[in-house]
Amino acid sequence: MEGMETVQQLPMIGEQAPDFEALTTHGTIKLSDYRGKWVVLFSHPADFTPVCTTEFMAFAEIADELEALNVQLIGLSIDSVHSHLAWVRNIKEKMGVAINFPIIADLDMTVAKRYGMLHPGQSSTSAVRAVFFIDTAGILRGMLYYPLSNGRYMPEIVRLIKAFQTTDEHGVATPANWQPGGRVVVPAPKTAADMERRLEEGYECKDWYLCFKQL
């Protein structure tokens, strides 16, 4: 699409997630309506396509777990609300899976452009498989992008939400390959005094800058 690259935006981690008002399978919603909840906003290329169908069933399978973590799932594609409704009905009838979260009908690509979902190397009319993690204050905390050809891994989406919430609650970071219940990383010292003191605070330290603890 001519000029798409100049009008599309890329949201920034740590900044306010772009607000929007959009028509969905659950009626009109605003992102700001979900303040106080985490939001996982995800895009898919098109309704009635094989990989997307497997993904929607997979998202439905983790929906209850995410709800227990105070997370609202919101889907999106550049299709009409009528197409979304027909697809949701088809998935329920043919696959036996209920899709209970809203799906944005983004025919004019407004939301897709605000979130950098359109990648011309993949398609000029379909959104890539993007996932945006938005916290209770409306701040964008993380993003994942996948190509049209490969579906997402749902345990990583749940793991990231739990990692963000652990960081917020305890003021720690999570190391590579962290799983809920695993050791966390203590923030690095900011002064020479902090550096000396932390070695006596009972942490499992590999060196002054890398210390772990169990929550």
UniProtKB/TrEMBL annotation:
Keywords: Antioxidant, Cytoplasm, Oxidoreductase, Peroxidase, Redox-active center. The keyword Oxidoreductase applies. Residues 11-166 form the Thioredoxin domain. The keyword Methyltransferase does not apply. GO terms for molecular function: thioredoxin peroxidase activity. Coiled coil: none annotated. InterPro entries: AhpC/TSA (IPR000866), Peroxiredoxin (IPR050217), Peroxiredoxin_AhpC-typ (IPR024706), Peroxiredoxin_C (IPR019479), Peroxiredoxin_TDXH (IPR022915), PRX_1cys (IPR045020), Thioredoxin-like_sf (IPR036249), Thioredoxin_domain (IPR013766). Pfam families: 1-cysPrx_C, AhpC-TSA. GO terms for cellular component: cytosol. GO terms for biological process: cell redox homeostasis; cellular response to stress; hydrogen peroxide catabolic process; response to oxidative stress. NCBIfam families: PRK13189.1. HAMAP family: Peroxiredoxin. PANTHER family: THIOREDOXIN PEROXIDASE (PTHR10681), THIOREDOXIN-DEPENDENT PEROXIDE REDUCTASE, MITOCHONDRIAL (PTHR10681:SF128). Belongs to the peroxiredoxin family. AhpC/Prx1 subfamily. Belongs to the peroxiredoxin family. Prx6 subfamily. This is Alkyl hydroperoxide reductase subunit c-like protein. It comes from hydrocarbon metagenome.
